[in-house]
Amino acid sequence: MVIEPVSLQTADGVWLEGELSVPDDAWAAAVLTHPHPQYGGNMRSIVPGALFEALPAAGVAALRFNFRGVEGSEGVHDEGRAERQDVVAAIDALAAITEGLPLALAGWSFGADVALAVGDERVAGWCAVAAPLRIVEARDMVAAYDPRPKLLVVPENDQFRQPDSAREATVDWVNTRLEVVAGSDHFFIGRVDRVPPLCQSLLEELRVG
Question: What 3-state class would DSSP assign to 140?
Answer without folding.
Answer: helix
